[in-house]
Amino acid sequence: MRVPFRLLLAVLFAALVAGCGFQLRGTLSGNLPYKTMYIALPETADVNIWLQRYIKASGSTEILDEPTGAEAIFQQLGDSRQKTILSVNAQGRVREYRLQLNYRFQVTNQKGQVLVPPNEVSLSRDITFDDSNVLAKDLEEGLLWRDMNNDLVNQIMRRLSLTKPKNPNQQEDD
């Protein structure tokens, strides 16, 4: 029985990639170091909805409805979203906008001790603008904001999964 060369090459490549430790980045790769977590945000906040989806997808952390009994409490420190003019044409009409999102957060325990120090995520996207396609550009802007929210939550999850939480019982060095 003869094995096709392409199949042999594909198996060899797969073995090589698996042997080097390569792993696709995904939502399941971000296991959090907490058993239970409370997200101190309104239920309808986009960040809360997306965070809950990602944490539930990881499967290692349970999200609680109350802060009592939570090993970690996610707190939003700041959320600013700006739309600024990036460039104008010869007639003085806007050609491009810049969408900016700055988000600050920290993780504490029930006693108020900081487990993960304040982190800031800054994102920006540029969007062209055309007076004749206002509705289409408005829809495009909404999709960019949604994409930025998704990217924000991905970065938060990566930072939470990679950050070694401080031991709250250990005294800090001054």
Task: Describe this structure as you would to a colleague.
With 174 residues, this protein is α/β, with parallel strands linked by helices. It is built from 3 helices and 5 strands, in the order H-E-H-E-E-E-E-H. The chain has a 5-stranded mixed sheet, with helices on one face. A hairpin with a 5-residue loop joins strand 4 and strand 5. Helix 2 crosses helix 3. It is a lipid-anchor. This is LPS-assembly lipoprotein LptE.
CATH level-4 homologous superfamily: Lipoprotein like domain
Q: Give the DSSP E fraction (strand runs of 2 or more residues).
A: 25-35%
Order of helices and strands: HEHEEEEH
Radius of gyration over C-alpha positions, nearest whole angstrom? 22 Å
By secondary-structure content and strand pairing, the structural class works out as alpha/beta
Overall geometry comes to: flat
Q: What is the averaged pLDDT score?
A: 85
Number of strands: 5
Tell me the span between the first and last alpha carbons: 72 Å
The number of helical segments is: 3
Helix fraction? Answer: 25-40%
CATH architecture: 2-Layer Sandwich
Sequence of strands across the biggest β-sheet: 2-1-3-4-5
**Uncertain residue ranges:** none
Taken together, the total number of domains comes to 1
Largest sheet: 5 strands, mixed
CATH fold node name: Double Stranded RNA Binding Domain
Layout: helices, strands, pairs:
Blueprint: H1 5-19, E1 36-40, H2 46-58, E2 62-63, E3 72-88, E4 94-108, E5 114-128, H3 134-162
Parallel strand pairs: 1-2, 1-3
Antiparallel strand pairs: 3-4, 4-5
